[in-house]
Amino acid sequence: MSKATAETIVRIEDLSVNFDATQAVEHVNLEVAAGEIVGIVGESGSGKSVTALTLMGLVADSATMGTGRILFGDTVLQEAGKPRDKALYRRFQGEQMTMVFQEPMTSLNPTKKVGVQVEEMLLLHTELSKEERHQRVCDSFLSVGLKEPEKVFASYPHQLSGGMRQRAMIAMATILHPKLIVADEPTTALDVTIQNQIIELLREINQKEKNAMIFITHDLNLARRLCHRIAVMKDGQVVECGATEDVFADPKADYTKRLIEAVPSRMKPKVQVTVPEGVETGSAAAGDTEHRAERQKPVAVVEHLNVYYRDGGGFFSRKGKQKVVKDADFTIYRGEVLGLVGESGCGKSTLSKAILGMNKEIEGEIKHFSTRPQMIFQDPYSSLNPCKTVEWLLTEPLRAAGELDAAYKMSAADRKAQAYDMLRKIGMDEKYLDRKPSQLSGGQRQRISIGQALITRPGLVIADEPVSALDVTLQAQIMELMRKLQDEMHMAYLFISHDINVVYQMSDRIMVMKDGQIVEQGKTEEIFRSPKDPYTQMLLRES
After folding, report:
1. Tens digit of each residue's pLDDT (9 = 90 or more) over 480-538
2. Per-residue confidence at 316, pLDDT binned at 50, 70, 90?
């Protein structure tokens, strides 16, 4: 985009941000013109969000600006050596500059209806009447593809799907037609079809409104599809910046090259993992006859499974019984990775909870041929107890198992030794035993979550979106770690993801799920080469 023909909306000059002795952002320069979408990409902790929050005036009060200044048009919003003028920012926030956050469920107030929350923008910044505000909100909902605006207006956040909540957040961000929109990881938790819808929506808004947009993401494929220019950040610095296709076609910085190489893709050769021989999988396993026979054994068999949820009236009520999983049939074999892919709300997590016995409202059969199947959750920050140390987190499964099974009974010293051994297996060392989850990085927390699931040596592990919240380099590390541990411990994974490229890299076989039904299953390579079901074809086309 030519700067001679487009007004510069925001300019960040030599920005450095410190948290006490830690420098989070260092000498960053960036500007965005009207009608331009600039992507900021990089790993977790690279300074992307701190840069955006500082620009928006939302960074924590403990942060200090060491150098530089931030301009919106000709107005200096912040300058090093001067306290942040919150009154000045209030003139711009909401009306001139807005932000769309990563997780709308935590951004929206769960106790207020969605329409009321969006209406607050008009209440604060306009003189419209109540009726006019209501109509404007409904019009805004329609403009972002929410086809039943009155129903959405009257709904609480938990009554909307993830994609609908994110559209509502975008409606809130755009209702006053701001000159600048900052979107911080707005599609991370969404499946591929909803991601595509949100990306197209942001593009349409940008083209229609001619606003400036900053798109923060760790997904380089999304940045490539949406952004005109890309800034690559590492350790608080911009290491490369340029036109999107120039950066992808000819990256200059070694770090940019590594980021691009780490992106999961079906165009890359798969890393081979140990799988059952004689089973329909994507790789062959070597070994003697006895070992091959062992790997042909099932660890779980699901037959004609229906899983229900109740909409109301309590657990034992017959009111509102809803079938979520419909007639599922499949087998998981020792040593294989069975991928499960589908959109949000299709029943993937419901199926996994039924397999683990967390949902008893079922018909059909679930047969287990291994002990203590475990789960690795998507977000270790919310699944790990924040008050406990790593040593407690890793030894607690052993304590719990010992109370139920004499085979797991051991002394405290032996449990600690097992925890230390698991730490080494997941690529960490003894110094982390006394740390709590808040003292770990995102990748380290996910490693602890994996260690916690594996320490009792289960035959089956269900991994529910274990890498979706991680940047591409951490994704690659965690996927490689999971393959390595699977090979060492001869267990099976049910690997759940909405990212079909991640599933391709990890899985020997794939099941595709839509509206509670498994519409296609088979060898990974065969499904990618020749998908039979129209829904599978659509998933592959859009990813």
Report:
1. 889 988 888 889 999 998 788 889 989 999 999 999 999 999 999 999 999 999 999 98
2. very low
Q: How many residues appear in the chain?
A: 543
**Widest Cα–Cα separation across the chain:** 79
Please report, for the chain, how many H helices and E strands are present, in that order.
21, 19
Closest CA to 373 of 397, 355, 400: 355
| 122 burial via Cβ count (<10 Å: 0-12, 13-18, 19+) | buried
483: three-class secondary structure by DSSP: helix
- Beta bridge partners, 246, equal none
Distance (Å, rounded) from C-alpha 427 to C-alpha 445?
12
DSSP three-state, residue 59: coil
Enter the DSSP assignment of 48. H
Handedness of CA 85, 90, 95, 98 (dihedral sign): positive
> pLDDT band for position 265 (50/70/90)?
low
Torsion of CA 452, 454, 459, 461, to 10 degrees: 60
Nearest residue to 445 (alpha-carbon basis) of 506, 497, 505, 385:
385
Which residue reads 């900052």 in tokens?
A: 182
